[in-house]
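Notes from hallway chat w/ T.B., transcribed later so I don't forget. T.B. wanted the structure written out for a chain they're using in a teaching module, and asked if we could keep both sequence and structure tokens in one place. Agreed to drop them here.
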Amino acid sequence: MKNSSIIKIIDSFTEDEVSEFLDFLKSPFHNKKSGVIKLYAEIKKHYPDFKKDELEKEKLWEKLYPGKKYSSGVMKNLIFDLTKLAEEFVMYKNLKLNELRQFTYTYEALASRKLKSILDNKAFIIEKKFNDESFKNIDIHIREYLNHFHYIYDIKLWHDFFFNQQSYKLKSSIKDQNHFDDSLVCNIFIHSFIVYYNSIGLFQKLPDKTVISNNSKELLDILVKGNFEKIINNIRKNSETKYILLKSYYLAYIAFSNHNNINHYFNLKQFLFDNVKSLPDSVARDIEEIVDNVSADCEDPKLDRMKEFSDIMKFRYQNNMVLEINNRLNAMGFWMWLYFFFHENKISDMKIFVDQYYKFVIDEDEDKENILKFADAVMRMMNADYKTSLEIISKINFKYPSLKNTLKKFMLMLSYEMNDADIFEFNYDSHLHFVNYNYKEKKSITDLQYNKTKKFLSSIKELFKLKLSSDLKYIVVFEKKIISDQIEYRTWFLRKLNELKLSKSNKSNSVAHRTAN
């Protein structure tokens, strides 16, 4: 029973919820079966460890019905009933966290009973919940918010009309309708864009690369070509908040569907950075993700991807967007932050970040322990403790190929730092074999990752050769190549090249000094 649904649900409970669920089961409104209460009481004793041998059905049966013969049928029904009630409890808890959802369901229930006076009393609450300020402060996704908005206003408009057909106030109706129409335009565009945006990712994964017609894009194109900017500006006359909301997704669509036009990209990025404080958290995260993806996909050589990456990460950090919506990070997401601090060469900031955010890495992620070891190794490398760093890294075994690929890059960088040609050649050959095999055979490395890694490999090999060169001009030429080719770990390469230039310059000065004497 250890891996059953009911144990998994109870395992997700907080300590308070463990007690609350027992109260829930004892309520006759929810449950009238004493056996279910007894079963939960026994399971509850083993929270949070849930040792497998203590949760065997036969052992639980002995506790529930001592002396009675075990009945698999009765036990199955008890577990089924308890599971259904646990699901109901989780649903209820989730509903309690969403005030707007509660209000919508309550309003719908009251309307279905034609309780006009109560509905009229709630009119001012509707205005409060759906005014412009509430747009900025909602704690649910904007799409859900807009759905609630339309559902409530649809009920309100129809009931107002039928209840007050003789004395219906046209002025009030028009005011409501304008409020409703502006939000309706926002909803149509945002929903269409999200459908289009998500479907693009699915279509790209189709093995035969079949071109599939996309109705959401056709709708978006019709809207955009129909002078949509004018509609957006008209909405601004009624609501600055809705204008910022709609303009964000409008610019996102333009940039995403024209990802090689860096002007569209910069328009979107700047608008987000300027208006983030006026956007709901869910919208800011949506638009930030699109900014990030457009930057990654843009093939215009004039776009400095490393600078854009750095700008986006700083933006996330400054606007409390480190964690995902569920207040979690996966191992890959955690690594991107380590990469950012390594790129910026800020070891103290990396240490603060690791201490603050490691606890949020998903427990189920097999790479959680390894990513903390990796963080330790990277910080030791930044402190020039190369030997210890390499020892730690050599014992790490990541699950994901992308993280394995990253690990191998650091092994090469450490080999370079240690100035060990044999270890460098061994790690280089190992990395080359890994990336070729995983790209061509296992197909677990993407085209972009493969091309970036090949550039990195050829560049670090060239860098190692430059250590043996005495000609400063080759270092300067290579430095320009690193910048123009936008090599991964560019700032590390540039730091190493500056060290080489300084070393060569000092040697030249020393030789010149000895010659002069």
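Follow-up for T.B.: The longest helix spans residues 170-204. Might be a good example for the class.
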